[in-house]
Amino acid sequence: MIIETKHISSKSITWTLRSAKKSDADALAKLRRQIDCETEFLDRECGEGVLTATDFIQIIETDRLESGHLFLVAEHEDKLIGFTRCERKPLNRFNHQADFGICILKEYWGYGIGRHLISAVLTWADETNIEKVMLSVVEANESAIKLYQSVGFKREGLLLKDRKHADGRYHNTVLMGRMRSSG
């Protein structure tokens, strides 16, 4: 699915929110690798589960054609600085739900970009009749959990010792969901 491009001013920067394009594939592959190396809050370790530009082209094409898929990017001064994907579950019994993920370059944390990306995803989900948007987040990422809660996500579960990081420490994963309001 494709959304209308928006230019957003937030906390001293102006950036663009738009649908991903095939021409973004190289930049997305580099961006994802960089973000994976900047934080332990994501599922992958640095260099693990790499997606190539070809992989991103396939994902973008699928997401543009499927009404239950959304792939958005955040761009600042012609540079991709973050992205988000939301994908409706394909099985009939779970088709009212979609999985959501987001990542932003660390130097752009705190500018409100995540809140805008999430808002765009939730607006799209509501308009697409997706009743529930779900995500998982490492419990140590307290600022992300607070952000998700502020836009209507609720804690639904906790996976104990779900992640084991390279230093041998275990981390819990919080499962969160946001139901579409009925009014």
From TrEMBL:
Pfam name, any one: Acetyltransf_1
Signal peptide: none
Domain N-acetyltransferase stretches: 15-181
Protein name: GNAT family N-acetyltransferase
Species for this entry: Fusibacter ferrireducens
